Amino acid sequence: MKRAIVIASILSMLGTSVALAQNAPPPPRPNASQGQKPGQAQPNRPQSSKPQPSKPQPNRPQAGKPAPQHSQWSRGKQLPPNYRHNVVRDYGRYRLAPPPRGYNWVRVNNEYLLISIASGLISSIVRPY
Questions:
Q1: In a domain, 32, yes or no
Q2: How far apart are CA 9 and CA 39, in angstroms?
Q3: Angle in degrees, CA 77, 78, 79, rounded to 5
Q4: Among 20, 26, 105, 109, which is most buried by a count of CB atoms within 10 Å?
Q5: Would you say 105 and 93 are in contact if contact means Cβ atoms under 8 Å apart?
Q6: Does any domain span residue 104?
Q7: For residue 123, what is the domain's CATH number?
């Protein structure tokens, strides 16, 4: 009885591996697109004179995309008093959320900072697209 169970389990394992192998895609054939048989040698071809497209550089701005701007402001820093005069009153126009009580939106260098009125601490930064 044990022998029949062992044989049945081995056959079932072999059957599943064969079934999985049949569903796998065939391996790519070399020179299949050129119409040559695998055993034939390739003729020597001169390299094309077209320049190969280069990979985009990570720090170089792409055409049509602005270069990333790095802000001097960060959350938790204090905004100096001379920057606090550009208060944004029509925040809906700039798609900003209404500031909570005790806070104002201030525009500095095309960035919108949510600052505390009393201390000038920056609690949020919004950079428009």
A1: no
A2: 42
A3: 120
A4: 105
A5: no
A6: yes
A7: 3.10.450.160
Asked, for residue 115, whether it belongs to a domain, the answer is: yes
Residue range 104-126, pLDDT digits in tens: 999 988 889 999 999 999 999 88
Q: The domain containing residue 115 runs over which residues?
A: 75-129
Q: Structural domain tally of the chain?
A: 1
CA-CA distance, 36 to 45, in Å (whole number)? 15
Inside any domain, residue 58: no
